[in-house]
Amino acid sequence: MSLNFIETEIKDCFIVEPQALGDERGFFMETYSEKDFLTQGIGIHFVQDNQSLSGRGVFRGFHFQTQNTQTKLVRVIAGSVLDFAIDIRKDSPTYGKYIMVELSWKNKRQLLVPKGFAHGFLTLEDDTEFVYKCDDFYNPQADGGILYTDSGLWINWEGIQREFGLRVEELLVSEKDKKHPTLAEFHTHNPF
Fold first, then answer.
1. Contact 79, 105 (CB under 8 A)
2. Which of 6, 29, 70, 90 could form a disulfide with 134 if both were Cys (CB 3.0 to 4.6 A apart)?
3. 23 — alpha (psi -120 to 50), left (phi > 0) or beta?
4. Rounded to an integer, what distance in angstroms lies between the CA atom of residue 55 and that of residue 75?
5. What is the pLDDT of residues 139-154, one digit of tens each?
6. 63 counts as catalytic
7. Which architecture characterizes domain 46-187 according to CATH?
8. Can you give the pTM of this predicted structure?
9. Going by C-beta distance under 8 Å and a sequence separation of 6 or more, which residues neighbour residue 54?
């Protein structure tokens, strides 16, 4: 198996580590293998790949789709991010909990974000390129999100500021992402 699957504290959300084979020329690695995923009992058919470029201090998220829900396999090919996955499955014992993982071109880690999760990332370096696979197509009419500054999420923005020098008040965030509801506000309309 060329991929190592690490369970997180939230069921169905995995850190995926490719095995990079390197020498003086550089490295080679498989970033996705359907066979390895099936061996783990994860049957996903990816249909779309996306890529974004961001400067340091950009926050994108927390996003999901209420229809055409998506499982995502996310990774960084240049730079680094703090990647977040929030469990918004109403009947889950970890509802409202999140995991945060540093993904970078150096550590080559990926995060499998299942359906029923809100996803977002904070870029830690300029010229960060973020790529991800999706198992359903983008549906702009089904766009949803959770407010990144929602105090009910208990995200330690002060700790992130201390460690990475990024203040939540100074992050570059889209106007759309600044207007998302809190998790409590979303709960009454939550289809997951």
1. yes
2. 70
3. beta
4. 16
5. 999 999 999 999 999 9
6. yes
7. Sandwich (2.60)
8. 0.95
9. 60, 123, 128, 130
Cβ 104 vs Cβ 20: under 8 Å: no
Q: Are 83 and 101 in contact (CB under 8 A)?
A: yes
Q: Retrieve residue 138's tokens.
A: 């983008």
The residue from 98, 119, 132, 180 that is catalytic is 132
Domain residue spans in the chain? 46-187
Closest by CA to 53, choosing from 78, 72, 73, is 78
65-114, pLDDT tens digit by residue?
999 999 999 999 999 999 999 999 999 999 999 999 999 999 999 999 99
